[in-house]
Amino acid sequence: MYQPHIETMGRRELEELQFKRLQQTLQTVYEKVPFYRQAFDLKGTQPSDIKSLEDISKLPFTKKSDLRENYPFGLFAVDRKEVVRIHGSSGTKGKPTVVGYTKQDILNWSEMVARAIVTAGGRPGDMFHNAYGYGLFTGGLGLHYGAEQLGMSVVPISGGNTPRQITILEDFAPRGIAGTPSYVLNIAETMESMGKDPRSNSLEYGIFGAEPWSEEMRQTLEEKLALKAMDIYGLSEVMGPGVAIECIEAQDGLHVAEDHFYVEVIDPVTEEPLPRGQLGELVFTSLTKEAFPVIRYRTGDMAFLYEEPCSCGRTHTRMSRIKGRIDDMVIIRGVNVFPSEIEAVILSHPDLTPYYQVHIERIGTLDEITVHAEVSEAFLQQAGGFNLDSDHFRRVKHEIIHELRNTLLITTKVHLCEPQTLPRSEGKAVRVVDKRHLYQSI
Ligand code: DLL
Question: Residue ranges of the chain with pLDDT lower than 70?
Answer without folding.
Answer: 1-3, 90-94, 439-442
